[in-house]
Amino acid sequence: MGSVSLKIGDGTARFKRASFCSSAVNILMLFSVITTNLFALYAFTSSPKDHQAHLIHNPHKNISLISEHVSLILREIASSQKKLARMEKELLGYETMDISRPNIASELKLFLQHHQLPLGKDSRTGITEMVASVGHSCEKSPDLLSQYMVYKISGPCPDDWSLGQKLILRGCEPLPRRRCFAKSVPKVGLYRFPVSLWKPVSEKILTWSGLGCKNFECLNKKKLSRDCDGCFNITSGYEIQKFVKARGRNDFLIDDVLALASGGIRIGFDISGGSGTFAARMAERNVTVITNTLNVDAPFSEFIAARGLFPLYLSLDHRFPFYDNVFDLIHASSGLDGGDKPEELEFLMFDIDRILRAGGLFWLDNFYCANDVKKTALTRLIERFGYKKLKWVVGEKVDTAGSGKSEVYLSAVLQKPARV
């Protein structure tokens, strides 16, 4: 619990540093008190002598004048307090969400209150309180956020995961914590790892609420994205051939890519990895891969977990919650597309570069190039990072599940340089 961080950034907890802020606040308060007292002293001593003599004979006017001076002093104090609060926000580096609005849920107000450390100032970090980790864009969706925070404390959480995801996709990430119990779904019929990688997942252990499809048959008939066309069918079809059997020159094989790595591949990150097939193939080669997911039109997160893999429920607008230079391999495909805003892809590429170690591989797998302008912009962006091009293929594929026209795709394996 604490106040909310609205400074645009990664949305993680920010801390009030007492030493700097306290001294500045104390100086401002002392200045305010001295100013108001000097003003009061001047107000009472600046009247001419004949006017003072007149006031002695007119006590009612004297009381009225004193009241005016007191009111003026109070207004000055109130103005100074407002300036003080504004300066304190600027010193702390964040703006506080307005929780005084009507219809704001009480749980949200409680979560956003300042949370003092129980033992006072921390000697190592200098902080005295923690600030709630809530996305800055939550301010733009107060009604939805308040609706998300209405529930029975210590009771079952509402079946509103789709509401939470809607907030995430609007930039309200991370969401505030809640004091309720998520619905428990019995996980019966799970297979042991690694057998679980390619065994059918029971539809009964997944949550279908809030989704258009209610079974795998429906999902596999839909093209959920360019990277997920029948991707929930892991017993037959193309999904079980991915990364081990190429359908075209843009399809790289896992073993060929791993052979390009210097220092070996141990851990990786798959961005928008569909149903987790890339992570499954890597797991067969003793490589741990985390798969970034959202449950857009399908239960991706639960399905990946049922296969014994690691889903990370996170949008691509969120700064990746990993330390610098930790991954040996990052795999991404068309889910990397930032839409019509090139700066969005640029921010994302810098974050990918941050978490990839020097010498690590960035595997861009069948990235859809909508036009030559986008292909050129992406190529120039990649070249800015100075990556070594180990593989680079631009080719065409027929959109069999859509228009039937040939589309241009870029596949590449790039190696991050060691920078000084």
How does this model look, in words?
Helix content is 34%, strand content 17%. It has twelve helices and twelve strands. Strand 7, helix 10 and strand 8 form a beta-alpha-beta unit. The N terminus is likely disordered.
Mean pLDDT across the residues is 82
Strand tally is 12
Major pleated sheet:
7 strands, mixed
By CATH, the topology of the largest domain is: Rossmann fold
Q: Which stretches of 5+ consecutive residues score pLDDT under 50? A: 1-21
Find the structural class using helix and strand composition. Answer: alpha/beta
CATH homologous superfamily of the largest domain - what is it? Vaccinia Virus protein VP39
N- to C-terminal distance: 41 Å
Give the SSE order as H and E letters: EHHHHEEHHHEEHEHEHEEHEHEE
- The amount of helix comes to 25-40%
CATH architecture of the largest domain: 3-Layer(aba) Sandwich
Q: In order across it, which strands form the biggest sheet?
A: 8-7-6-9-10-12-11
**What is the tally of helical segments?**
12
Rg result: 30 Å
- Indicate how many domains the architecture comprises: 2
Instruction: Note the overall shape.
Output: elongated
CATH class of the largest domain: Alpha Beta
Coiled coil: 70-97
InterPro entries: Prob_Methyltransferase, Put_SAM_MeTrfase, SAM-dependent_MTases_sf
Organism: Populus trichocarpa (Western balsam poplar)
Family: Belongs to the methyltransferase superfamily.
